[in-house]
Amino acid sequence: MRHELLDWYDRSKRDLPWRRTDDPYAIWVSEIMLQQTRVAVVIERFKVFLERFPTAEALAAADEQEVLALWSGLGYYRRARMLHKAAKTIVAEYAAKMPTAAAELRKLPGIGPYTAAAIASIAHGEHAAVVDGNVERVLSRIRGWESYDSVGEAAVLRKVEEFSAGLVDPHRPGDFNQAIMELGATVCTPRNPQCLVCPWAKECRTLGEHKTPKRAPMTSREIACALIVRKGDAGTEVLLEQRAATNTVMPGMWELLLLPDGALAESDVRFTVRHAIMQVNYVVRVCEFREEDLALLKSNGSERRWVSLGKAAEMALTGLARKVLGKLRPRSTISIQQRSS
Ligand code: SF4
To answer: Residues lining ligand 1, CB < 6 A?
Structure first.
């Protein structure tokens, strides 16, 4: 099975930027970015992030708001905060040198068993198996284990971990781990497994018949936000509000002022955007407000700031705020890539 998978990987692997390096820091950044974010999005952001923060030391020295600004659009901002925190730990406790063993990496903030095994095997050749959602799906299908049958989800995961630990190639553990994840991402996909081109079809007990649990359905929600602009010395300025530090979702990030339900007249709507966050599809009505009408919008005590559109691009904006402001000017002027080039 090892040879079949590695032969397939050598022939079919995608050329991804983090596969061209053995720098453990770069591999770590890519692994964190890839959790819950699409590869195409990560490809863009990975390069920009590494240009600005080429080492753990550079990342540790940065202001958190700048780290969040570079993370904007990738979502799940807790990942960026933990990455930043772990970089500081590496500088403070490991003389700015990342630990090499998976067991040691797991002591860092935000690095769990999966990420530790991925970094240690890919960058240092440690014989450690990774188990993420892709690996779990592929190996469960190979063996015909259903996560919601009588044995339960936790029991299946344990069996997958055992199977995976025995399967990982001792000579090429990093490639093996990347290969099995690649198989899950490109061939043994959740909805339409391509069994005809699968290198493990001979070993597979289910051949596409595995009952993959259904994805939780998306829900829809309508919200409205206020676009309040004025002419300032540096051109058009927009009013932004910072989310409270105690907020459980995206604390400290900047956004447009949200309007309370019912505060919106249809005629105020300048444009509508759609924005998905986890299982919710938001339909967002963006309404133009004049500066004089600001008193109508009660402050919730958070800091508000007038900023030029150019300056806004450098701030830790929520993904929604970045999307809305991107519609006011040519896309490139509000993008992170433009700012750092
Ligand atoms: S044969 Fe099909 S179901 Fe089995 S591992 Fe390969 S792609 Fe997945």
So the answer is: 138, 141-142, 187-188, 193-195, 198, 200-201, 204, 206-208
DSSP H helices in 13-132: 24-34, 39-52, 56-61, 64-71, 78-93, 102-105, 113-124
**pLDDT tens per residue across span 143-157:** 998 765 555 677 888
The pTM (predicted TM-score) of the whole model is 0.78
d(CA 67, CA 60) in angstroms, rounded, equals 10
For residue 116 the two structure tokens come to: 């530790």
Q: Which residues contact 196 (CB under 8 A, 6 or more apart)?
A: none
Mutate to test the pocket of ligand 1, among 140, 204, 205, 209 (most ligand atoms within 8 A of CB): 204
CA distances from 171 to 3, 7, 220, 245 (A): 11, 14, 49, 47
- State the Cα–Cα distance between residues 318 and 247, nearest whole angstrom: 13
Q: Give the torsion sign (CA, 331, 234, 63, 325).
A: negative
**Domains in the chain: boundaries:** 2-203, 219-340
**Whole-number Å distance between alpha carbons of 34 and 302:** 32
pLDDT in tens, 213-272: 667 788 998 888 888 888 888 788 999 999 988 888 888 899 999 887 766 666 678 888
Domain range 219-340, CATH class: alpha beta
Q: What is the CATH code of the structural domain delimited by 2-203?
A: 1.10.340.30
Q: CA angle, 173 as apex, 168 and 177 as ends, to 5°?
A: 75
Q: How far is the CA of 203 from the centre of ligand 1 (A)?
A: 9
